[in-house]
Description:
The protein is of the alpha/beta class. Helix 4 packs parallel to helix 7 (180-192) and helix 11 (258-275) packs across helix 12. It has helices at residues 14-24, 30-34, 51-66, 79-94, 115-124, 141-149, 180-192, 200-209, 217-230, 235-243, 258-275, 279-286, 290-319, 340-351, 377-382, 407-421, 424-427, 444-451; strands at residues 2-5, 70-74, 98-102, 128-134, 153-158, 171-174, 247-248, 251-252, 328-332, 355-359, 364-370, 390-394, 397-403, 430-433, 435-436, 465-478, 484-491, 494-500, 515-527, 530-541. Residues 80, 135, 159, 179-180, 210 line the site of manganese (II) ion.
Amino acid sequence: MKWQLLNNRKVQSVEEVVELLLKNREINNSEEFFNPTDPKELTLKSIGIDKKEIEKAIARINKAKENNELVFIYGDYDADGICATAILWESLNKMGVKVLPHIPDRFEEGYGLNPESIQNLKQKNPNLGLIITVDNGIVAYEGLKKVKELNLDAIVMDHHTKGEEKLNAMAVIHTTILSGSGIAWIFARELLGKDNINTLELAVIGTVADQIPLTGPNRSIVKYGLLELTVTKRPGLKALFDDSALTAAGMLIKPLTTYEIGYIIAPRINAMGRLKHGIESLRLLCTRDRFKAVQIARNVGLTNQERQKIVEEVLIATRLNINEQKIIVVSGETFHEGVIGLAAGRLTEEFSRPAIVFSVKGEISKASARSVPGFNIIEEIRKLKKLYLEGGGHPMAAGFSIPTKNIPLFAEEINKSALTLLTDEVLEKKLKIDLAVTPELIDFPLLNKIKQFEPVGLGNPAPVFSVTAMEVVEIKTVGKTAKHLKLKLSKNGKIFEAIYFGGGEMLADLGVGFKINAAFNIEDNNWNGYKNLQLKIKDIKF
Ligand SMILES: [Mn+2]
């Protein structure tokens, strides 16, 4: 792994460290950063939402209430879409509107406002008058045409990139700054008033799940949202916490962070839409029945385990077929359509190169691609538009459908472009290091400052430091399969506890007395009532 030192200044004090950490994160307003605005007070202007569109939407919802019209919230099957749907459904319900949620089926209806689905909704519900899309809709030209044809109104709430054509909707509430559930929450705040809004614990899940940079207004939502999530009274979330061992006897084992959302909570909410139907996760979030909550949480947990197993199966099958190609391209009839994106992500991580995974189904196959920084995968895919049918994405991730017979040629062509673009330099794994420090600085005053950088995540990574020539004083492997490394490192008379997750294999090359350079996060380790400072090793160099 190549170390990229973001700053090579020599620092003497904790204040200087903080200043450089802020600079590395391009944070100019440290006051706002350390004391984010309460999301209840965020202005519409600061998040780029047009107030007039909100007013039009509120007026239309009030009219629906007066006229006793049915309103459908048309969401999405991922965690952001499900949380956004839950926020709006509950909010409209609270104000006495007749409202129902619609989460599309990934396999039958696909992503976005599906014209056939709208036709069906209207057929089954003659009193349907208004459709509100959330976390989708901003390029739903066909779907909105159908809405018009059926004499319905549409309000679009979305955070995806706008298209060229004008949208056929009576109000468009759009910003790319927030997640879908962030927009839904801001709208609900305007609709109900800031004293009546209580769905921030859902907005934080959607925001973290959608991998939005956690700076500016999103930092507000996440910081305050985590506090609400920690004390949530939702039976479904509590049951999910219990089922995933975040709580024991109803008590959280440790405070919730973006990590728990990103790696434990959101994957479970996502699992239903990937393998079965996302509506089950919506039920989990919204149910008021404790017994039902426990049942659904178990079902969601088991589905998530199944999802993990299916991803593993894809990985096991593909590892055997990986050759010298710069871009990993694998396909299989057994590769479940709902997990190919996850599998591509895992392959990219494991082999530090782009990966494209195809789920082969008859004549038409589905593909999901993940890339590495420095290789714009959507651009390269678009160059091959003769070979595939439709798709979209961004520089790091894309999805498309393709005639099965074209897969071999597609694989060959995309690897041709990689020959020149994917140099060894681009493919080398990199670790960004904030600052090289002296051991004297690594102590509780610095740790306390670093804690104020939380919540960390995309756009605001946990600070990484390095220290050169530390001596290994103690070393052993830990964990059931000796996967991790526990060390004591010393320099200038100071001794540090360190843990290196996944570093177990290094025991063969390391021993007491060795001098190493270490890159790490600093964290506190509460163990048996003792509060310790611990280095969480990211990489070691001899
Ligand atoms: Mn979204």
